Amino acid sequence: MQQVAPTISVSANPCPLSVRKIGQGHALISSKFLRLSAGPTRTRGVAMQGFAAKLVIRAKEKALAQAAHGETLRNQIAETYKSLAELSEHLKASDMAAERLKIYKPKYGSDYSCPICWQERGAIKWLLFVEEPDHAYHCKICGFKEADDGQLKKPAT
Asked: Which of 6, 19, 28, 103 has the fewest CB atoms within 10 Å of its CB?
């Protein structure tokens, strides 16, 4: 009983199949990313032909499709892990928000600290007062902006 094993190589993206007959009982199934080829399958010394050869081709086509689908699934799993890592970071920040709020100090002497940089990064960054055009405090790091409503004293110059 002699059987010719197909050779299979797989890459990432699915693409259209090409099936060619390359001789008596020989077939080549290929795509840009996978190539299956085999001579006639032999069982008890008799070459399979006709319907049995078609079945072998269909099995190879299915193997090609499953291999391409496997790569798609691997990519989806990798994206899911990346998304999970991002969600984990957001959860960690959410868990820390209440604790950071308890110790937030908006003013150090005559300087004001950015509430956004403190909550998101735990970093004390100073707000700069910009008189024109909007009389507001700005954070150069995160872009936070809060207008001076007249109750705040302008910093000494």
From this structure: 103
Could you tell me if 30 and 17 are in contact, meaning their C-beta atoms sit under 8 angstroms apart?
A: yes
Contact residues for 64 (Cβ-Cβ < 8 A; gap 6+): 17, 29, 31, 34, 36
Residue 19 token pair: 């099936």
The tens-digit pLDDT sequence of the chain (157 residues) is 444 444 444 444 444 555 555 555 555 555 555 555 555 555 554 555 788 888 999 999 999 888 888 888 999 999 999 999 999 988 988 888 888 899 999 999 989 999 999 988 888 999 998 887 778 899 999 999 998 776 545 555 5
Tokens of 115: 């509430």
Q: What's the predicted TM-score (pTM) here?
A: 0.43
CA–CA gap between residue 4 and residue 37 (Å, rounded): 9
Contacts 24+ apart (CB under 8 A), 90-99: 93/120, 96/122
